[in-house]
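Issue 218. Parser rejects a valid record. Input:
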Amino acid sequence: MRYKAVLIFPLMAIFLAVLYGCSLATSVRCGFAQLELVKPLIGPDSQLPRATSPVPYIAPAEPQTAHLGEAFLLGTTWYDYQHNCTISKMVALTENRGVHFCWMNGYQAMATDRHIFYNYWNPHLGDLAWPGVGFGPVDQGDRGGYTNLSQFSAGQAVIALHQNVLPTDPWTASVAFDFMEGSGAFQIGVLPPPPGYDALAWPHSTVDAQDNIHLVAHENTATVWQRINYARSEDGGYSYTDWTVVDTIAGISGDMAASPVSNKVGLTYTKSAFNLLNLGPYEGYLVSQMNNDIVLIESEDGTTWDFSNRQNLTNLIEPDSSRYPDTTYA
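Output the parser choked on:
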């Protein structure tokens, strides 16, 4: 019973210390615990010292003592953001160890003049083909924008972009392709939007193992939703199939990729968890662009597509309006 009393008494003392806002000190005398109540070290009116140095996660980085490599200036632009939503590839390594680069070049601060530029790392010269400036414009319009690239098996760059030939023209998805690797002798194929579209823009492309160009582009519309369309070139970019509607989405998210070891091609995008034509209680909110699943459509041979056969890779749970805004804006 003596051991039980020794255990119970400290527990009661701890309870009293917590109850009255006091801290607890102990010392050992004659084989038993002596408990003392002392004044708290920190109370609600305590003046705490301020930090004298930045917290670690915002502290300045230590000076770099080793560089990753030599820096080369590709070119310039006034556009610090290069894409809306999906980025895709803007750098590509060739079999010959050359490197393609593309970007959207805004000439002035207001970016009224905007075009697509290209540069190439020549492995034989050990330098860029157009040091510091790049080659451009690649597009052949009044303005061009939002570019990404892929390449043919022989190493020529294939650059997707959108442009308008005249200032009053609608945006059109276009694909430029080089004559030789790194030559800058681009030809460009322009794909007008299908009937019923104001414009078709923000194209993203890939080149498959058969050197076919695959292209997905997005409807330019003022509504919350937009149709995405697919087209393909089987003659090196000189002609294309008609546009085919893939789906209706709420974001410029379409992208494409091709297997380097087979004829398989994939098309992916984000798809809203809502019926975009009837948002119900979410009408007027950005939830249609926030609550999305990632969808994948595959073609085994690069030519046969079933756009209704979508694989939902995420299967997100729809938001619960009774728990607004925790899940509505999740």
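Fixed in the parser; the record now loads. The chain has two helices and 18 strands.
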